[in-house]
Amino acid sequence: MAKGLFITLEGAEGAGKTTQAGLLADWLAGLGLDVLLTREPGAGSIGGQIRAVLLAPENAALAPMTEAMLLAADRAQHVAETLAPALAAGKVVLCDRFADSFFAYQGYGRGLPLDRLRALNEAATGGLWPDITLLLELPPDEGLKRAAARGAADRMERERPEFHQRLAAGYAALAQAEPQRIRRIDAGQDAAAVQAAIRAELLPELIRRGLVADAVR
Length: 217
Ligand code: Z5A
Known about the structure:
This protein is of the alpha/beta class and about 220 residues long.
């Protein structure tokens, strides 16, 4: 289906994904690439409505499978409306969270069976999978401190510390299983140093795929 390049940013709350995605989009555009920056959950008008249900603190009673199905619905809409057309048009797509969040949060965090989540994810994406994933790693308490400094916590940020520990372990397991795709980045450095580490990971890939000239190195 895809002929563009699909890059996802992953990590726990406050790891700096949104900050880094913006800096990365600017750098890639500066290299002359046609970039689309998007996110999950909540891209587009329908996604925005699903996101509001998912994150509202008053929806504390949302059952884990309901949460998973809402996230899968958001992803199905996002793939159909945004991701597949952009990749088919040859764009570099940067997505702030995608399927690895699903396995880390709903699988390792909530304890839903991974095989069920894989089936749900496959139904939502039609098999679309990231080419490269940048996993921003930060101890959970550090990320939560950063997120808290920003303001009121949403439904998921209010989870107990054990939940955040499980999802950090889940991300590590996903990265171990797919080291070629998932690049682990130390997110405990200042934002400029994190961005430099991301660019150092990506540049050889961009050159290898013929998207930028070796001269940029
Ligand atoms: N979710 C899920 O469960 N399953 C799924 O399949 C998907 C998602 C797709 C979306 O929340 C929620 O959905 C998320 C997982 C779940 N759980 N929660 N909560 P969101 O989109 O609202 O938030 P988020 O994705 O967790 O991102 P975030 O909390 O906004 O954090 P971030 O994007 O990683 O970080 P940031 O916004 O760039 O930075 C956070 C703060 O730290 C900010 O004040 C920055 O200025 C600061 N910052 C950034 N970088 C640094 C460095 N390097 N040093 C110091 N301070 C920094």
